[in-house]
Write a structure and sequence with these properties.
35% of the residues lie in helices and 16% in strands. It is α+β, with helices and mostly antiparallel strands and 158 residues long.
Length: 158
């Protein structure tokens, strides 16, 4: 399983401090090639929504800090006092979220399998489905039932 964050590369390029580094890395092209290679090898490629708070959520107790500026590389959770490297913590949270999304997308009895590789906002995602208008405002939300949420949250045994 390969999990990546669905980053807004075009938006990040507008930040002049980040633009050169992002351009040199070629993140969009890398993800395109990675997805292609994963599919060729029969591996699962899963994208996680760019708005998932991977950096500022403690992977131990799931407490989320209100604000975490980009220049803060290390932080301690106020709840469980675990010390985090921002990037390592984000990687662990992205892995866990990718597995949660895949668990939620697993087919129910009698259903055809859902294609992996979506950004986690499909029918089986275990969070409210929020559609946005052209202006970026929320149009509607649809939440899953409690039973579905309980099922989708049970990936810890993987």
């Amino acid at each position: 399983v390969i999990v990546v964050e669905n980053l807004n590369v075009k938006g990040m390029m507008q930040n002049h401090k980040l633009a050169k580094a992002i351009q040199q890395v070629g993140w969009g092209m890398f993800c395109t090639m990675l997805k292609y290679k994963a599919e060729m090898e029969g591996k699962v490629y899963q994208e996680v929504d760019r708005f998932f708070p991977s950096s500022k959520t403690c992977h131990v107790c799931l407490n989320q800090v209100d604000s975490l500026p980009l220049d803060v590389r290390f932080w301690a959770c106020e709840n469980c006092h675990t010390k985090h490297d921002r990037d390592v913590n984000a990687a662990i949270n992205l892995r866990d979220e990718g597995l949660r999304i895949l668990t939620c997308q697993s087919p129910q009895r009698g259903e055809p399998p859902q294609g992996a590789g979506s950004s986690g906002t499909g029918d089986k995602a275990c969070r409210p489905d929020v559609s946005r208008s052209k202006g970026g405002r929320k149009k509607s939300t649809t939440a899953l039932s409690v039973g579905q949420e309980a099922y989708c949250g049970s990936f810890a045994s993987l």
